[in-house]
Amino acid sequence: MIEVKNIRKSFGDKIVINNVSATMKAGQCNLIIGSSGSGKTVLMKCMVGLFEPDSGEILYNGHSFTEMGVEERTEVRKEIGMLFQGSALFDSQTVEQNVMFPLDMFTKWTQQKKQERVNEVLARVNITDANKKYPAELSGGMKKRVALARAIVLNPKYLFCDEPNSGLDPQTSLVIDKLIQEITKEYNITTVVNTHDMNSVMEIGNYILYMYQGNKEWEGSNKEIIFSKNERLNQFIFASEFLQDAKEMRMLEETGRIPHHRNIGDTPQS
Amino acid sequence: MTIFTDIGQYLLMIKGMFSKPENGKMYWKEFIHQCSEIGIGSLGIVAIISVFIGAVSTIQTAYQLVSPLIPPSTIAQIVRDTVILEFAPTLVCIVLAGVAGSRIASELGNMRVSEQIDALEIMGINTKAYLIMPKIIGSLLMIPLLVVISMALGIWGGRLAGTAAKILSASEYDKGLLEAFRPYNVIFALIKSYFFAFIISSIAAFYGYYVKGGALEIGRASTKAVVVSCILILFADYVLSALLL
Ligand SMILES: Nc1ncnc2c1ncn2[C@@H]1O[C@H](COP(=O)(O)OP(=O)(O)OP(=O)(O)O)[C@@H](O)[C@H]1O
Ligand SMILES: [Mg+2]
């Protein structure tokens, strides 16, 4: 479990995170959503200590990460896997070496065992036949998936994904969401995902934190989000007509009632 | 003011390098990799420069020594001493600041800008120890080696040019090389090259590691690294000469 308590962060006079608190439980996918520039990446980087928050506290399983010294933080970090928004693959290493790197560094496994594990996670992110390629030879979406493989190769206790499926086609996107959800449940991981993909929100959003210009605007689950009355959230998340329709279908499923302004009888027969 | 914060940050970087390696084997691998990048990677340019410097010194010394009273073997002596004392250590290190230093700065700068350093940090790796230490130790091992090679090639280049221009015969040159030879000069040159190696690698690592911003800044950082290390090399050259000669 990760607790975020009253985090503030500014760059110069620009307040980027303004007093945000959240509780992110283990074994579920915790989503941070919000439009571009709302502070998702900064919040995530504060959570893992890449940025020091100006005030507030981050707790990992009740232990204050903010107050830890370098060595204690290192211990926590060995249990963290993180997928960066820009993938952050080591460009001097092949796909295989990238994914194997954490194993090389932190395990004493045999080469064969490491190789098996690497192939296993690469298969889970749908990367085959690219083992010997360099990151420069991959597409953006492939880089993302290799980076995700690297993040999960050591079975982390905490998984941070900054926009895992931006730049992926809807189908692969779904595979990645499913994978994140599966391993989260399977290993009881505390997973934090930054996204603005509505599909992910509805599919895996056990807990959703909606950021608006650095403030926490709304929080809840994907069950609750369709009934939310928050104007900004509704405008952000159900931006298109299509998504509006999808939302109402989901409401119908959940409650058996359609919102009164819609008349289902008008639907043309086909 | 920024110069003081820079110096402070530089010292903290050096201090931060010392910690127990997470995995000795990986550090060793990185060290060997850096040795080959710095050593093998710069060997060609160092060889070319050294041979030409030796050749030019021979010709210019002969041009200046017109008196018939001075035996031609003296030319070899002078070439030997200038190459060993100044050209091989200082000039080669200034070139290495450009070759190896800018490589170190841009490699680290690129890793910083593309968040690869952050990715390593998140894994729980001390990036100062893992990325910077092998570069500095690799330089401390390889750069003095390059300087020694440069001495030999410089003297050889002088011999080639001297005989080709009929300034002196090969045997006169060899005789001159052994006259009034002071081994201390070689030791002094090696001491200098250790200092220069540390300057080149640590300054380049500092500017690369702390790059802020985008790709444009990487170029700026490596230029700055080269300029600052050249100045520091010349300054250290002066101080060491004043103290040790
Ligand atoms: N290192 C930094 N220095 C100064 N300002 C920054 C820095 N990083 C981010 N910001 C600012 O913080 C704000 C939030 O940025 P952030 O990267 O968190 O957005 P985001 O929600 O992740 O957006 P996106 O969905 O586009 O990734 C932006 O206005 C950005 O300009
Ligand atoms: Mg972002």
Describe this structure as you would to a colleague.
The complex is a heterodimer of chains A (270) and B (245). Chain A is α/β, with parallel strands linked by helices and 270 residues long. Chain A has 2 domains: 230 residues, 3-Layer(aba) Sandwich (Rossmann fold); 31 residues, no CATH class. In chain A, 39% of the residues lie in helices and 23% in strands. Chain A is built from 10 helices and 10 strands. In chain A, strand 9 and strand 10 form a beta hairpin. Chain B has one domain. Helices cover 85% and strands 0% of the residues of chain B. The mean pLDDT of chain B is 94. Chains A and B meet through helix 2, strand 6 and helix 3 of A and helix 4 of B. The structure holds adenosine-5'-triphosphate and magnesium ion. The site of adenosine-5'-triphosphate has 12 residues of chain A, from helix 1. Magnesium ion binds next to helix 1 of chain A.
